[in-house]
Amino acid sequence: MSREARGAPAGRPARIVLAPDSFKGTATAAEAADALARGWRSVRPHDEVVGVPMADGGEGTLDAFAAAVPGAERVPVTVQGPDDRPVEACWLRLPDGTAVVELALASGITLLDPLRPLDAHTIGFGQAIAAALDGGAVGLLLAIGGSSSTDGGVGALTALGARFTDAGAHPAGAGGRGLEALARVDLSGLRPLPAGGARILSDVTNPLLGSAGAAAVFGPQKGATPEQVDQLAANLARLAHAMPGGAGLAAAAGAGAAGGTGFGLLAWGAEMAGGAGAVADAIGLADALAGADLVVTGEGRFDGQSAAGKVPSEVAARAAAAGVPVALVAGAITADASAFAASASLSELAGSPEAAMREPLRWLEAAGAALAAGR
């Protein structure tokens, strides 16, 4: 652990806010917050410890809302997964009628083994959105991180009533590969947005096409070879050409998010809302910070990309505005963390990254205890 955490005098109970992201693949944000709380209370049992699990629009976003919003209700739905097998997913109904739909639960990369870089699709995500609309959603929060596919959101839009056809007016195939035969896009049957609109939760700002586009940047993460990346890029360009207004939408910030799902949702009329910032607003982070003596945030790996809109940077910025010091917990810390009042690396506490990943909750608990001992 680095420098001692500052805040309330040691003699009185402090208000501690725990606002971590998920530790991807090892612990959800809610699990991380709970483990940190156990560790903190083991050292300072009289402190007020408040858990506000965070997310940036990726895996765990729905869980973060469920944990932070009283009265939120999970609604189960069975959808067509990215490899066509049924997936038991859910959407979240918030008390104001807004629905949170998470792509990772219906069409995410963790649902695949092996990966399907050319054929994975977002049909299930669209089916989950449709189920939320059928359930009376008055607005949509669409978390699109953790995608398995590079289909430009065509699968999701198809499930919502759009038609993508080849030169013979037959349906184009699913996945990025299916876009190779695309000749015409018909959005006339697309379901209308709910009255409250749809906001896309994503901190990815990549355009759809080019060297910073969906295929070039994210295709390899989804198993694409260099040749397949070129194929996917060409197919996304075909989609942009065929989509009404596609040229302008393709260049929009975030159009390349989730294998181009951002592009498809923008074509539907959804708006980019950012990821961590929009989640922080929706779950009431500002209210939680009021009167806090310290906020603890974290993620699986704190590196050079963490400052670009990830949860720790968002929480730190809001805490700074509120005059609250911030501590960082991460599985590994590879970037300068000196701006934080204190920091704890699970890899250092456990002795190695492998040991930390084997028992993440144990070492998150240890991190909470270490931070509390430093007050």
Major β-sheet annotation: 6 strands, mixed
Beta-strand portion reads 15-25%
CATH fold group of the largest domain: Glycerate kinase, domain 2
- In angstroms, what is the radius of gyration? 21 Å
**Quaternary structure state of the chains depicted:** single chain
The percentage helix is 25-40%
* Helix vs. strand class: alpha/beta
Compressed to H and E, one letter per element, the order equals EHEHEEEHHEHEHEEHHHHEHHEHEEHHH
CATH architecture of the largest domain: Alpha-Beta Complex
Strand order in the sheet with the most strands: 3-4-5-6-9-10
**Overall pLDDT score:** 94
Number of domains: 2
Please identify the top-level CATH class of the largest domain.
Answer: Alpha Beta
Task: Supply the number of helical segments.
Answer: 16
Overall morphology: elongated
The CATH fourth-level homologous superfamily of the largest domain: Glycerate kinase, domain 2
Can you tell me the residue ranges where pLDDT is under 50 for at least 5 consecutive residues? Answer: 1-7
For the secondary structure, the number of strands is 13
- Give the terminus-to-terminus CA distance: 12 Å
